[in-house]
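ugh ok so i messed up the first submission bc i forgot one of the chains. this is the corrected input, ALL of the components this time, i swear. 1621 residues overall. if the numbers dont match what u have on ur side tell me asap before i send this to the collaborators (the ones from the other lab, u know who)
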Amino acid sequence: MTRLMKYFSEGRTSGKHTLPFVVILLGVTILASAANLFLPADSALYVSTYTITLLGKYLCYAMLALAVDIIWGYCGILSLGHGAFFALGGYAMGMYLMRQIGDRGVYGNPLLPDFMVFLDWKELPWFWLGMDQFWFAMLMAVLVPGVLAFVFGWLAFRSRVTGVYLSIMTQALTYALLLAFFRNEMGFGGNNGLTDFKEILGFNLQADSTRVALFLITAILLAVIFVVSQKILSSRLGKVVLAIRDSESRSRFIGYRTDRYKVWLFVYSAVIAGIAGALYVPQVGIINPGEFSPINSIEMVIWVAVGGRGTLIGAVIGALLVNYAKTRFTAIMPDAWLFALGAMFVLVTLYLPKGLMGLYGQLKAKRNTVMNKEPQA
Amino acid sequence: MSALALNGLESTREFFRRDQVWPFLAPEQAQVNVGNQMILYVEDLNLSFDGFKALNNLNLYINDGELRCLIGANGAGKTTLMDVITGKTQCDSGTVYFGQNHNLLNKDEAEIAQLGIGRKFQKPTVFEEQTVFDNLELSLKTDKRVLPTLFSRLTPTQIDRIDDVLKTIGLAKHRFMLAGALSHGQKQWLEIGMLLAADPRLLLIDEPVAGMTAQETERTAELLTSLAGERTVIVVEHDMEFVRSIARTVTVLHQGSVLAEGTMDQIQSNKDVIEVYLGEEAAGEEIA
Amino acid sequence: MALCCCLFGLFSLPSFAVESTSLDPLLADLVDAKISKMVPILDKIEKASDETVLPLFRTLLNGDLYYIKSTKQVVGQFDTNGETLYKDVFTGQAHPALTKRDVKKIRVNNTLRGYLRNAIARIQLTSKNSSVRESAVRELLSKLDDDTVDILERLYPHETNKKVKQAMGLALAMNTASQTQLAVSNRIAAIDTLADSLENDVRNLLTTLSNDENPAIQEASKAALDTIAQRANRFAFVDQLFFGLSLGSVLLLASIGLAITFGVMGVINMAHGEMIMLGAYTTYVVQLIMPNYIDYSIWVAIPAAFLVSGLMGVLIERLVIRHLHGRPLETLLATFGISLILQQLVRTIFSPLNRQVSTPSWMSGSWEINPVLSLTLNRLYILAFALLVFIALVIILKKTSLGLNVRAVSQNRNMAKAMGVKTNWVDAMTFGLGSGIAGIAGVALSQLTNVGPNLGQAYIIDSFMVVVFGGVGNLLGTLVAAFTLGIATKFLEPTTGAVLAAILVLVFIILFIQKRPKGLFPQKGRAAE
Amino acid sequence: MKIKTLTSAIVLSGATLIALPSLAAETIKVGVLHSLSGTMAISETTLKDTVLMMVDDQNKKGGLLGKKLEAIVVDPASNWPLFAEKGRELLTKDKVDVIFGSWTSVSRKSVLPVLEELNGLMFYPVQYEGEESSKNVFYTGAAPNQQAIPAVDYLMNDLGVERFVLAGTDYVYPRTTNKILEAYLKAKGVAAKDIMINYTPFGHSDWQSIVSDVKKFGSEGKKTAVVSTINGDANIPFYKELGNQGISAEDIPVVAFSVGEEELSGLDTKPLVGHLAAWNYFQSVETPENEAFIKAWKAYTKNPKRVTNDPMEATYIGFKMWANAVTQAGTTDVDAVEQAMIGQKTPNLTGGIAVMNKNHHLSKPVLIGEIQDNGQFEVVWETDGVVAGDAWSDFLPGSKDLISDWTAPIKCGNYNTKTKTCSGQNY
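and heres the new structure output, hopefully the right one now
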């Protein structure tokens, strides 16, 4: 029994998933990519570019789910505003891609993006400067979400805003950004956002090879982030984080500055979200304020809940399954998919508080106990 | 106008005082200065929750290495006092010094804990989702800033330390059990163990034997008495038997201030104590 | 309207014979005329008669004037509870035989309507009802052509009613002021009298006069304008304040239910918005059931909505929330799922299109305090209503046994249980109450905004902001927060624009919560932790 | 063990995706890309039904090229990136021959790159801001010069309006339209101080202060009108506020570009009688085609109260033209159909003939209607003859030199007549 109990304490078991996960993830992606590039379109095993981009999108969501899980599942901070960090990362990438269009926009203006031309703006707003440099844009993609997360977290955690209040505040944060980015004066293309991208680092975004490359990069980065996060969370810092989740005051009384731990974890998570956003945009081909909408942020939480929070693998699986289900539902029964989605949320929270991984754990537990019993009998 | 000038002058003087260096230049004194045997100074402490005076001009001095028992009826301010000492709640007025050089009132829980003040709560609070071992590992006396924690590894000495703590609290064979799965008494022990692992100068222990069996209680008594000497221990307890068994000095709190102080016998013979605290017991005896 | 047409019909009975004969040819022309050619004809008609043509003009103005295809005879169409019937506009005598097939509408457009309104006003100058006369005069201020002025000058001496006389005086003063051939002194005198009127037309006249070639006139009118401007500004401020209060009342209604479910029970009810939506749809259904009694429909809708949303609330509590006790963050997820389901439900039942909820006559229009300040009735009522609901709720919580139980459970569930409070029952009731009030809010909102599946989404975030800002578990806090935010938004809007105002308010709340993590009115003592 | 479950989890999801779509060559596939859930469902479900009705209708007539038509409906759920994804799904998995879809500009912009990459064909049935012309899209809704400009002309000439309030929701359509109108009005000699521009967020519901501002602005002597590009949901509270603050159509007429019969069916129009809307179609227009269409629609939806509106007519015309073009080209091949489309003629439901021009925009009549108390419009003014849709506005500095011409030799959506260049084509 003791062995079992020990076995299921988080932070130890989830470590066991790392290797198989990485292997499968990279295996599947490489196979899929190869199938897309080297097989003829009529072959039975051919993977259409549609599927590739779809999978690419899912992986971005998986990364995002990871980010949410790290702070919610491990540190008990329920952020309803992670969509904001995701979108900010996305916008950074979007601005870069926008600048790459150069004079190939419909108005042929070498400097200004089309939406600025027909709202007849005269020169580029300052925050668009430098965005034509890939490295700079990518720096922004992680820096902007990171800094925002730091400022917000620093304020919130130091003044000990916790639980529901924090969740609502994060929601307010993303909602405010949503409204802000809708404004055309902001210079982010308003409701239309940024779209009609042409190429990235000189590679044509519409070429299959580019898509596959993006897809692979996403997969690899996901694997890397997964491993790193796993390492962090199974270090002593990971234990402190769990401690904070389970009893923050206790952790303070044994001498941990919990607010600092929370801030840095929040920043880390936000940065991951930013990266996910940056990878997401070139693959779906558009970024617009819709990504900031609070509903999206709630959905992310749901992915994690479904997969099983407190286990990284759970977050990833949750994201993949829910989004896959969504795609299928919208195709099969468009009118009813909200029912299904809604029902899923309710049932999971009611009957699978630890998500699918939790269920899997219970089943395993049962089997083992059964096994343990039999010899005695 | 001139007044202003004077003020300005005053403040500058204040700022350039000869007899002391600027606070930001002063060296960080990690060592607790226990020059005259005193480790804790609590002076005219006041605190009120909307109207109700939880602490009322409370004065308390604890010698280095002594074992002190705090008793008092519910609402006498025992727990509140501990809250103030450990930085959980801010007091309205008064001073709390740890040694002669650490003003606890301008520090937060974490800092206070790092100074070497350990606290055990009324109802045991341990990290239920983690193993007994992890619980102890977390409470070890180490550098507790973020990055060091991230890269820290368990050193053999630390492991040994954890092991003998495990022995002292008799949970050696449960080391890989989830803390949540322990019995109530065992949790109490684990929490004490967590204090030990941090080897503090001062332990504040709130009702250690609540919900313990007789022999568990006994062992707790032994443990606490053994601790005293190298460490300072303050125990809050309702169980008079237990108090009598460990106490050297007892302080009686009543309505937020010290009512009496002395050995158990002195206390029991003390008039007003009998009135306010043992009052009903005495009455009970008479009736019996 | 129909009714008053008939009234005038009655008035005109004695002189009727004469009139209609002289009018008939004109009416015939009217029927044949193209819309652009109608004004002169109407002019003739007006000249050729007196008050008796009012019903004709009124019916035409409302677009209720038809003519019988066969006989070219004009008739008015009246809706008397439900069924339409056609009457002679003068005699009010009905033509039961006529159906939609037999008649054709006489079209009107904006220009025509504008003309008719003035014509009616001119005629009404001689009306028997003083208030009618007054409004007639005010109506005419904008179009002071010579013959109007003549009429006024004729009537002015004989006018007995004080207010009407004042209005006429104003009109004449405007006339004198604008007459360049008159002596400057008279004109200035006139201008000075104008200074204490707030009528737009007066202000416009003065603005034109303020660059009159005569410097004296310029001076006078500038001075007059200033005095007017000062008063106008004061009223403008009141106006804005009212807007703020009104927005606040909406926020209050939307969030007060949440203040209970969230504040008292600690349940983050993401489906709260949908409770509001259900209330709005209930209003719609009620109006479907009683189409001829729209004016009373609201009074039926309020309890109905309370029941519908309340029961739904109880249902949700029993089925879902009960099982998530003490896991507030998970209630959030579950209720979010529920909100999705409810939305899709109404989409499938009522279609995704917005539903028409008509405003009772007594709620539409506005209360004209003076030409620059008028408060819209529906918002006034909603403001009052919001406060009533609030008070009622406070009473329920403070005075009733339910309230006692609720407070007991919210402060110490186990103790309450031990004391024999049926916590399950209390939870259900509390949640029902909160949801029911959300439903009532829905009734109010259905009068302001569109009733569609997304109605709830629009308010959920604001509601949470209000509750958190006010301090969870504190109704007074919610009240203060709602009005603070409402007024703040409305005073920001003119300078920043609607969008930026919203953003600034949000940012403010975020920062405020950093300062006061427990909101405006936090719960104190150990119980709060 | 663990590995197995994991594999199954991922592979399973992968596999079902990879499973090849059945290529049924027997039918001609018509993709429908309209949101059935989310905020835009309100407007778009109607258009979905319209397309389905047209497909039924066509099949009753024996389909096209001897094949039946098969409608394939997906739900982009008012989520803009999803439009691109679903568009790709329709084109690559379902291999549809044509797509009818999109309502908002952003959804069109989102799916556009996909259409151009995979050389699909889409019909876009909603009035929009112009400033676009893609080889793969046919725009059957009104361009600004087919709606806004005639409306303003009507206001100035027939109603003698001298001051204008340009009120809109803050997104690209109102922004562009108002830019165009501003330029146009100034060109017509309207002073800057007589133009008031105001933007509000989506679904704005508290119109008190804005309406009262309009009231003030209108009370300064000169005849004033509001030109409203307020988007769907926000309209109802806006009109309710107008009614309550007693702004009647005679004092300050409001002419709207996105308020049709459908929007009005959501509110009580008694207080709004006389306010205006500019469209290419009104349900109230009495022509045999229109009556037939309305009859068919009510029959199809089994709801005698259902109303028709302009985007429906646009869909109708688009579908008819596509059908003709396919028969004419004898194939559904996109390039062939695209060329065959140009010059297609179809009778409007409001009389007259709609023509598809070289710039993929239609020539249509422009009608202005007054709101009636029965939720319908009554036509008070219409252009004599049809107006040719203009892809690139002549009143925007950026686009005045651009033209669109998809016939040889130019074959360009944004041909700059000054520099004689065609920039940024994706093919």
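quick check: Chain A has a mean pLDDT of 87. that seems consistent at least. Residues 31 and 47 of chain A are 9 Å apart (CA to CA).
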